[in-house]
Write a structure and sequence with these properties.
Length: 263
């Protein structure tokens, strides 16, 4: 498949309300996401972050503008099995084991241009080696999200979309999963688009952070995170890391004030 670049030009998305008036969810989105980069999208609730993921993946159409993924339309890219997706809820099948959940999508959507991944090995890498045969009801929230992440990476997608996958987890579990996500990403170098509300998470994970504002949803800033990888504790506690946090906080404050929202 062509290079996993995501291009958005003049993208607009409207939703019709019950009274037949239109609400502009996104407007004037111009954004390029380079292949193999980890890009986070951050902004206040209601700014269209999740909507943008649905447009990229072809789950919803644009009302104006153009999106290409790997040189294809989103629908064509989806048909070519270019996407992996990790939602806020892991959405595991309750009657299948951990291994069954991560292998099922690969059996259904196998990429014939890719070899069979070592899914058991990937599960061991994220600390699920002793839970391979457990059912989802036997897992903690963090273990379920680990399973969902391996399931997505198991398809070896060109583009991985993650919609606040760690939002419901405690801080320590969240940090552990961030580390494991980065380790898997380093192996595959998929193009990643990651939605988050956490400033620290965006800085730790990303090559670039896209800041959005609402009413209508739009991009107000794109910040390059020039920090060395891997981003272990010494990087996270460095002055440079905190400087990026402060910069991102200021840009988010501007996004809030520019949209008329109160903090």
């Amino acid at each position: 498949m062509a290079s996993a670049t995501i291009e958005m030009h003049g993208v607009r998305r409207l939703y019709q309300q019950a009274d037949l008036t239109d609400t502009i969810a996104l407007d004037g989105i111009d954004l390029t996401i380079e292949p193999g980069t980890f890009v986070s999208i951050i902004g206040p609730s209601g700014c269209g972050k999740s909507t943008l993921l649905r447009l990229i993946s072809g789950q919803e159409p644009t009302d104006a503008g153009r999106i290409t993924v790997c040189g294809l339309t989103p629908t064509e890219a989806a048909e070519a099995k270019a996407f992996g997706f990790v939602p806020q809820s892991p959405a595991l099948l309750p009657w299948l084991s951990v291994l069954g959940n991560v292998t099922l999508p690969h059996k259904v959507n196998r990429r014939h241009d890719r070899g069979l991944p070592d899914l058991e090995g990937m599960l061991r890498e994220v600390g699920l080696g002793e839970s391979i045969h457990k059912l989802p009801a036997e897992l903690s929230g963090g273990m379920k999200q680990r399973t969902a992440i391996v399931r997505a990476f198991g398809l070896r997608p060109d583009v991985l979309l993650l919609d606040e996958p760690f939002g419901a987890l405690d801080e320590f579990t969240r940090e552990a999963l961030q580390e494991q996500l980065l380790q898997l990403w380093e192996q595959t170098r998929a193009t990643v688009v990651f939605v988050t509300h956490s400033i620290a998470e965006a800085v730790r994970l990303s090559d670039r952070v896209v800041v959005m504002a609402p009413r209508p949803g739009r991009v107000t800033d794109v910040i390059d995170i020039d920090l060395p990888r891997p981003r272990h504790q010494e990087v996270i506690t460095s002055p440079e890391f905190h400087a990026f946090e402060l910069t991102l906080r200021e840009r988010l404050r501007d996004a809030f004030s520019g949209s008329g929202l109160q903090r």
